[in-house]
Each structure stands twice: as C-alpha cells, then as structure tokens.
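Worked problem 6 (solution included).
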Amino acid sequence: MARLDGKVAIVTGAARGMGEATARLLVEQGAKVVLADILDDAGEAVAQDLGDAAIYVHLDVTDSAQWQAAVTASEVFGPLNVLVNNAAILIHKTIMDTTEDDFMAVARINQLGVFLGMQSVFEAMKAAGGGSIINVSSIDGMQSKNSLLAYSASKWAVRGMTKTAALEMGKYNIRVNSVHPGGIYTSMHGMEHMTREQADAIYSQQALPRVGMPVEVAAVTAFLASDEASYSTGSEFMADGGWHAGAVNSGLPQL
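Solution. The predicted structure is:
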C-alpha cells in the first residue's frame, strides 16, 4: 500500500516548479491530484504525463467561483482530503518603489488565494471526515530581506492564517500547516538565468551550502499530506537548508 493511497488533493501553481514537483510526488505516492494553475498548456501537459491519477483545471486563485469549480472537479476522484496552497508571485522592489498595485497584486495571489482555498475546501473536507491543508509560505515568512516588502508581508500573513485555520478546523480533523522553503531552484528563483553552480554559490554560508530542489520541498508537503503527520497542525515546517539557523562565519573555527 502506497503512503498516500486514498488521498485526493488539489495543488495550486502545479504547472511548474514546486507545484509540479509536489503533484508528481503525491501521485507517485498514491494520491489522485487535481493540478490547478493559469498556465493551461503547461498544466495540461503535466496532467497528461501523470495519466489517470491526475486532471488539470484552470484556476485563478483570487476567484472564489473558480475555486468552487476546482473542488467540484476533484469529486471525480472521491472525497477531497488534501489541499496544497502553492501558487504565488514575487516582486523585487524597495519600499519606495513598490506601488499600491504591486502590493495588492502580491497580496491577492499570495494571501487572498490561500484564504479562498482554505474556505473553499472546508465543507468537502468536513464531509470527508478530515483532511490536511498545506500552505506554502517561505523563509521570508519567518524573517525578510530588502526588496521583499510585499512578498514578505504576504508570506507572514500565510503563516498567521495557517494558525487561525488550524485552531478553527481542528475539531473537524482538518490539519493546517505551513511549509517554509528557502532558496529553491525554480523559475521564481531565476533558474533560467543562472546555472545550478551559480545558484549554489548564493547559499554558501548556510548550513547546507547549496540551493534547494523543488522535490525536497515536495517531500515535506507529502509528509504533511500523509497520516504520518496526524498530530501536527498549526505549525511551521522548514525546508531551507538551514538558512533560518544562521550563517556560517568563515572567520570563526569550523569543523
């Protein structure tokens, strides 16, 4: 029996990057998956590659009606019991260069999208007898960096919403946790413009001195989707190569 047999999941932002890696790993471990994105050609291609265990739906995560359509689409596989809120955008601008439109664009996708997702799946998961919601935040939902005002604000919000939802939904056996990736080698990170070696160099001072790969975050998500995480809710799960632990100082003694 596979780890996720019987699980039915919706994964947003599933056409590429961490979302694609997550959808592929969930299917590999036995789940049926609804891939949701606005990149229709790429999303359809991934779903086709995954075969009968996956379908693709167009989903703008800021649209509640499209959320309801995605939940309805999941019924072809059975009761919905996993949601991975992964869709997000990133804008690098200083506080003085960030416009109201910039700020609200990030907030709508990264924050409102997560809220609508949790709200939309609640009744289905309640009827199923429980479930697991995994909200993808970021290391920048634990600290921040310059040029990340809007992004960091949205990812801190995801962390806070996760805790509130966990408290409200726990009595229905619905667990809600957040995953906090560090630097991951995806399009959002700029993989089209740098080699793996160049990306590794950016993280040379963290505990694991390299960039992360999407499947390494997907593995944390798969654990949270599984019954192995049955007593974990309202918590942050880091997949950041030790970024949050601190920085290796080359001027101090080392092993």
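Discussion: The domain at 8-241 is CATH 3.40.50.720 (Rossmann fold).
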